[in-house]
Amino acid sequence: MIDVKHVTKRFGEGQTAVTALRDISLTIPEGSFFTLLGPSGCGKTTLLRLIAGFELPTEGEITLDGDSIGHLAPNNRPVNTVFQSYALFPHMSVARNVGFGLEMLKRPKAEIEATIHEMLELVQLGEFASRRVDQLSGGQQQRVALARALAPRPKVLLLDEPLSALDLKLRKGMQSELKRLQNETGITFVFVTHDQSEALAMSDQIAVMSAGAVRQVGTPEEIYTAPQSRFVADFIGDTNIVSATLLGFEGDKASIRFGEGTPLTVQTASTSLKPGAVHVALRPETIDVVDEGADRALLRGAVVDSTYFGAGSQMLVRLDDGVAVLVQVATPRAIGARVGLECDTSMLHVLED
Amino acid sequence: MSSAVHIPSTDAATSLRAAQAARARQARRTRLFLLAPALGVIGVFGLFPLSIALVYSFLEPGTYGGVEWVFSYDAYVQFLFERDIFDDTLAFNSAYLQIFGRSFGLAVTTMIGTLILGFPVAYFIAARPPEQRNFWLFAITLPFWTNLLIRTYSMLLIVRDEGFVNLMLMKIGFIDKPLEMLYTDGAVLAGLIYSYLPFMILPIYASLEKFDFSLLEAGHDLYASRTQVFRHIIVPITRPGIIAGCVLVLIPALGAYITPELLGGGKKLMIGNLIALQFGSGRNWPFGAAAALILMAVVLIALLISLRAGSSKEGGHD
Question: Are strands A33-37 and A188-193 parallel, antiparallel or unpaired?
């Protein structure tokens, strides 16, 4: 288990100092597939490098199974990294790359040989042991990097956007491969990505980050269906964010109203919001298009665009208050037509700003 | 009508073969033509002077310099033996071997010195942001713009008894009377290291420039200490640059003439001075030519051995 406690990381000094991480606290459970998700520059890679030991925290502490590791050198931490650029040693064979960690740990030769063999089998590169790394394809190099990082049996494996250099098809294959490796080895994986679909597909838990802070931690389902903030809702999937008026709270639910419509009882990220204008998340796949005059319609607007994507169409509806909403439909309405939008109120979610 | 399709195959095959042969002849001619300038340069500026030296080394010295066209291998005998003036017997003479030995010692020390000083400098430049590197490279190569003779004379002014170093040391009270630095092996070594340092820095920089610094992090991450990262990752990857730098320093340092002459005071002969002497006041051109060829042969053999050692190391497991 990794505990990140109130970690702040600043680069540079004085006036030009840049704060990459601002008082971050996180708990990464043992044996889980944990993803740090966020746009570029959000600090996710910095956090990974702090756990690896390539950077030291300006403030705060990082513990691994209760031991403070935040100020140890990388070679003194039972943590290994799969680099974005793979960083394979070009002057060594595949086998020596994989065995390098164990060699540095001064393990017996027989054990090193056996582990190299086992790891190459695990990533299905058994017959490539004596190849030079520059004779391998990108996907194969990726597997060597994985095998090299797994060979010393670290407590934690850090993966820095390892799939970003692969093409789409290989990437899909490697996603399930990584899941399988994590299940087979039981090692804690900390995975950094900016790709929300990758994060949703692979993770046990996701930490969504932005601007040096953790915005939300949860399972993929929680993050997708119950985003807490506007940022998270916006970052995960094609979410519509519409304006509504908060009337008050009923227990842990919120009472809201669209325009001058009837009050609705919906889920909320927080019960400490002030009544007044709020933002509500609305997933495109939960919206139904009805006639403008229908009583069921919660929102009203005009169709401004529609895109056919095979399994259906995506329609862009501009609401009367100017907000554009994406809707998935089987048969699109004509552009310019006035429509009403209805949705399952249990899927509505009031957001914090 | 169908007969028109069946062209007798033997005719076609013969003409095809003839055409191919003509094409091949043409290609050979073109290749020779294109190679001619390079071969010409190598021949005129490389092989031809070398052959002159080779021929001269097997002739007898002329009384006032030059050569007598009489075959003799005396020059090579003279290198190892001394001929008794009275009874013509040969006695072993190690004087020239000692000169070779001293020159090699000094050249190898120069090489090691430039490597120890040059590697960190090359590393420093390669680790700068790309837009700053050219400035540092410019600073390294700047002394080249001044003549070697002038730089060596300036060195002489710095290390002599009333020179900059002694004045400074006396001013801060470190010493009472000047240290004798000029005309010592130390002064020659310092001069050689100063002169040849850029030849070490530039090739090492060239190999470090392409170096992927994330490999250092990968090494640390895989439990290698700083020294292990240096030994197992930096050195093997930059080995071609290190070898090139060593060769570029060692060979000219072996034949160095100006530096030992000025800073060493010509007191102890170096190979370069020995050879120069034979063509000047020594008036023994064949011996000069022989000494030059022996030097070349020794360097070649040393290079071949070191290259073989280098390549077998690369293939092995460590």
Answer: parallel
> C-alpha distances in angstroms, B194 versus A74, A89, B122, B191, B243?
38, 34, 15, 5, 19
Distance of CA A325 to the CA centre of its chain: 24
Q: In whole angstroms, what is the distance from residue B77 CA to residue B56 CA? A: 15
User: What values do phi and psi take at A245, rounded to 5?
Assistant: -110, 125
CATH code for the domain in which residue B201 is found: 1.10.3720.10
In sequence order, the 6+-apart residues with CB closer than 8 A to the CB of B285 are: B56, B59, B61, B62, B65, B66, B67, B278, B279
* Cβ proximity of A302 and A315 under 8 Å: no
ipTM: 0.78
Residue B225 forms contact with A (CB below 8 Å): yes
Task: Domain of residue B221: give its range.
Answer: 95-283
Decide if A137 contacts A61 (C-beta within 8 A): no
d(CA A95, CA A126): 9
Number of domains in chain B: 2
Q: Are A144 and A133 in contact (CB under 8 A)?
A: yes
Convert the pLDDT of each residue in B180-225 to its tens digit: 877 888 888 999 999 899 999 999 999 998 888 899 999 999 999 9
B146 plus B261 within the same structural domain: yes
C-alpha–C-alpha distance, residues A311 and B137, integer Å: 60
The string of pLDDT tens digits covering residues B2-14 is 445 555 567 788 8
Contacting residues of B for A54, CB less than 8 Å apart: 217, 220-221
From the list A85, A96, A105, the residue facing B214 with the nearest CB is A85
Inter-chain touch B221–A96, beta carbons under 8 Å: no
Closest CA to B111 of B230, B244, B253, B240: B253
